[in-house]
Structure to design on (714 residues):
């Protein structure tokens, strides 16, 4: 019998254990110990702590019958979480404190787990002694899905703010601080160079309901009323799973502050989180449970060992197969075609600067990148946009509708869905992909990826820019926010000019420059978008012939004569943008007088007739502030040059950028082509700047002191 056993044993060849398998054994041993320990851990606690009155509810004023996780008044602190302690003031006002700021609880819905809160120090009051932003514990509260806006209260400002923000003023005198001159802004505070002439003592940010924000913007309610209406938040219980199990046992949820952990209360003492309270004689059941646990763990160990052997064999086989197929795969992958060369590094260079994100199998073949950007499947983007939900539409992107989306990896994106999938659209699609992937500039929108040109629909995936377009803020749905001060507008002009100058240096004409294609981030920095009309042109070609395209009101007038677009066509369109920034008017508006329907024509006429003041947006303080008047006049003069009918009379984008920077920095002689003295008024004195020979006698009431001679074009 022994010999037979010996022979049987000798027929097996033991495989040496790999480090990963050894780790598995260690983990399983630890699991066995945990099983044994858990049997001891399930014994009922020996504590004699008494928990009483957790069946009581909190009620104060209109807030009634509140239970866990809230505590306060008749509900002892151990009956809920310490972060949800409520207080009752004067038997009518419910308050709670988060991050050392006290809030009134206006509504509390325990079914939806929502609250409406208002800062106690700003309730029926616009002045405060606590100059801190309103913040809540982010692990317990969030405003996802809530309709809130940020309200900025800015105190103790000099008189310049009063002229630039005339509609948002309020008075405050608090604790000896001179805060009488104060104003409010709705929405994110821009990175505003106007701070060089505005001085304020302090500011705070407070959320308010969007409905209240809209009524405040429309002057239908006061600032005090908007603050009293509060803001809405969701709340959550970090121990919700423990509490659900406790409720299943018919217990009451609580919290042991001494131990810093949740507790399930049965009657007036802690109860174990299992189906029944064990009796004293449960030692045998513990031993039985441990034996069962050991048996199960042993079976798991055997199964894992067998599984590891099979897995190891298959991995080896897969590696051999992969090695054999690598050469074949490389032969199948061909580089994407390129219609024209561009004076930037090859697209492979850009793949290094693009983060690597998970991607589905590409429709371009085995590759997951095309022109250096990620390729998405149609299904991925359909899911990201909730089946292209109409409620997620961000706007019209020129050749398609743009949707808000969230990718599987969490990135928030803008997805452009082209209207038609015909040959022309495919050409425009590939053109935009090629151009965007070869460009890198802080003021150009970033392309994350696209679908295959053979996809059922052509989709482009861009970074999401959250603050809308310049058009939205000038004359769209955000026009009443009051956030576009003069210096913010000037900065928008400069950053847009930087982007266009960069495109022209890269031999690219944008061909659809307009305020709807200039996006703004939360700091009001520019991202120029929508390259669907762009065209590459080589260094030895001065223009591009094309079919009628572009947007009415922005199109180069010479285009209708020769059907050719050049860099100077972008300059003309940018001149219209400058006038929009000055006036807050639309490029085309059929509601205006027939001579003023086209904004470019209207602006030229106003400037030539010495009535620039009739064109400038009154909210900019043109009449009251000499600095604004001086800079706006110079920008209008530059726009006049950009809007010349003849291309050769327009400046280059580089020159436009240089002049704008000079205006911003106060260096009015930055570009010395010719010099003309303009008398604006006695306070400002003569200004010097380059003008076109066909400029009017003056851009504001006054007269020319000297005239200029024609300049040569570039």
């Amino acid at each position: 019998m022994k010999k037979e056993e010996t022979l049987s044993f000798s027929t097996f060849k033991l495989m040496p254990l790999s480090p990963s398998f050894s780790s598995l054994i260690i983990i399983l041993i630890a699991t066995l110990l945990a099983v044994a320990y858990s049997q001891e851990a399930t014994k009922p606690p020996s504590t004699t702590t008494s928990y009483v009155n957790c069946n009581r509810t909190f009620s104060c004023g209109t807030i009634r019958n509140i239970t866990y996780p809230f505590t306060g008044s008749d509900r002892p602190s151990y009956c809920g979480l310490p972060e949800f302690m409520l207080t009752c003031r004067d038997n009518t006002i419910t308050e709670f404190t988060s991050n050392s700021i006290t809030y009134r609880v206006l509504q509390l819905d325990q079914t939806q787990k929502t609250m409406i809160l208002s800062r106690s120090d700003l309730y029926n009051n616009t002045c405060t002694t606590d100059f801190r932003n309103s913040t809540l514990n982010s692990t317990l509260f969030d405003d996802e899905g809530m309709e809130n806006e940020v309200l900025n209260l800015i105190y103790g400002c000099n008189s310049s703010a009063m002229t630039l923000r005339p509609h948002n003023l309020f008075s405050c005198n608090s604790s000896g601080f001179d805060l009488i001159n104060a104003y409010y802004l709705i929405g994110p505070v821009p990175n505003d160079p106007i701070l060089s002439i505005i001085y304020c003592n302090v500011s705070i940010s407070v959320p308010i309901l969007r409905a209240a924000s809209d009524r405040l913007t429309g002057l239908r309610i006061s600032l005090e009323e908007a603050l009293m209406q509060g803001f809405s938040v969701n709340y959550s219980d970090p121990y919700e799973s423990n509490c659900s199990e406790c409720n299943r046992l018919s217990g009451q949820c609580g919290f042991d502050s001494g131990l810093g952990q949740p507790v399930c209360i049965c009657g007036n003492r802690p109860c174990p989180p299992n189906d029944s309270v064990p009796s004293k004689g449960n030692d045998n059941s513990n031993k039985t449970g441990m034996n069962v646990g050991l048996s199960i763990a042993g079976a798991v160990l055997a199964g894992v060992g067998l599984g590891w052997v099979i897995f190891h064999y298959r991995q080896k086989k897969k590696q051999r197969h992969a090695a054999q197929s690598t050469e074949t795969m490389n032969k199948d992958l061909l580089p994407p075609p390129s219609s024209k060369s561009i004076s930037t590094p090859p697209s492979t260079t850009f793949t290094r600067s693009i983060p690597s994100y998970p991607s589905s199998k590409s429709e371009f073949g085995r590759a997951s990148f095309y022109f250096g950007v990620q390729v998405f499947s149609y299904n991925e983007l359909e899911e990201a946009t909730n089946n292209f939900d109409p409620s997620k539409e961000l706007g019209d992107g020129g050749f398609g509708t743009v949707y808000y989306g969230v990718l599987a990896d969490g990135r928030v994106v803008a997805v452009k869905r082209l209207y038609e999938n015909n040959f022309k659209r495919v050409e425009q699609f590939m053109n935009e992909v090629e151009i965007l992937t070869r460009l890198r500039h802080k003021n150009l929108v970033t392309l994350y990826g696209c679908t295959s040109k053979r996809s059922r629909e052509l989709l482009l995936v861009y970074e999401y820019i959250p603050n809308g377009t310049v058009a939205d803020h000038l004359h769209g749905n955000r026009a009443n926010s009051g956030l576009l001060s003069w210096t913010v507008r000037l900065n928008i002009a400069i950053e847009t000019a930087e982007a266009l100058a960069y495109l022209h240096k890269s031999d690219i004409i944008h061909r659809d420059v307009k305020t709807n294609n200039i996006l703004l981030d939360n700091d009001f920095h520019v991202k120029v978008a929508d390259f669907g009309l762009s065209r590459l042109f080589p260094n030895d070609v001065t223009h591009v012939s094309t079919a009628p395209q572009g947007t009415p009101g922005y199109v180069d007038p010479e285009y209708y004569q020769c059907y050719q677009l050049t860099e100077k066509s972008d300059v003309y369109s940018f001149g219209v943008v400058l006038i929009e920034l000055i006036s807050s008017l639309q490029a085309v508006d059929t509601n205006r007088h027939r001579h003023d329907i086209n904004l470019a024509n209207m602006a030229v006429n106003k400037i030539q007739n010495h009535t620039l003041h009739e064109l400038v947006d009154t909210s900019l303080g043109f009449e009251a502030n000499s600095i604004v008047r001086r800079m706006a006049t110079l920008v209008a003069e530059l726009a006049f040059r950009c809007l010349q009918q003849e291309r050769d009379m327009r400046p280059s984008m580089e020159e436009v950028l240089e002049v704008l920077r000079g205006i911003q920095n106060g260096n009015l002689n930055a570009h010395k082509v010719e010099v003309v003295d303009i008398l604006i008024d006695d306070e400002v004195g003569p200004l010097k700047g380059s003008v076109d020979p066909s400029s009017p006698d003056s851009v504001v009431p006054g007269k020319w002191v000297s005239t200029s001679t024609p300049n040569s074009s570039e």
Summary: The longest strand covers residues 148-157. The chain has a mean pLDDT of 74. Residues 58-235 form one domain. The chain has three domains: 58-235, 347-463, 470-689.
